[in-house]
Design brief:
Blueprint lengths: L1 H27 L5 H14 L4 H12 L4 H8 L3 H25 L1
């Protein structure tokens, strides 16, 4: 049990490191436009509004490139739960982002 907890924490730390690296690359890319940085910042801001497991699943799958089976193992849920989480997370994120565009 302790080994599983350790492996899970280690895995999450690696994920955070990958996410931070991607975030820094987008922020400091010399060729990036200010508009792109604003878009990425807005995306991360809206992702923070998602439930934790949805956000985690989206980051793992869409940004970090983890397989569904790997996400299932990390989150400790069924494969169908992970797929549902990804689907609902994408829909909610689209909704949140479209609300922002309409308000602008």
């Amino acid at each position: 049990m302790a080994r599983n907890i350790f492996r899970k924490r280690l895995s999450r730390n690696k994920i955070r490191e990958r996410f931070d690296i991607l975030n820094r690359q987008h922020q400091y890319d010399a060729g990036s436009e200010l508009e792109t940085n604003v878009d990425i910042g807005l995306l991360y801001e809206k992702m923070d509004l998602l439930p934790t497991k949805q956000k985690e699943a989206l980051i793992l799958f869409e940004i970090s490139g983890f397989a569904l089976k790997e996400i299932q193992e990390i989150q400790g849920d069924s494969l169908s739960a992970v797929k549902l989480r990804l689907s609902r997370g994408r829909e909610k994120l689209k909704e949140l982002l479209s609300d922002t565009v309409i308000k602008l």
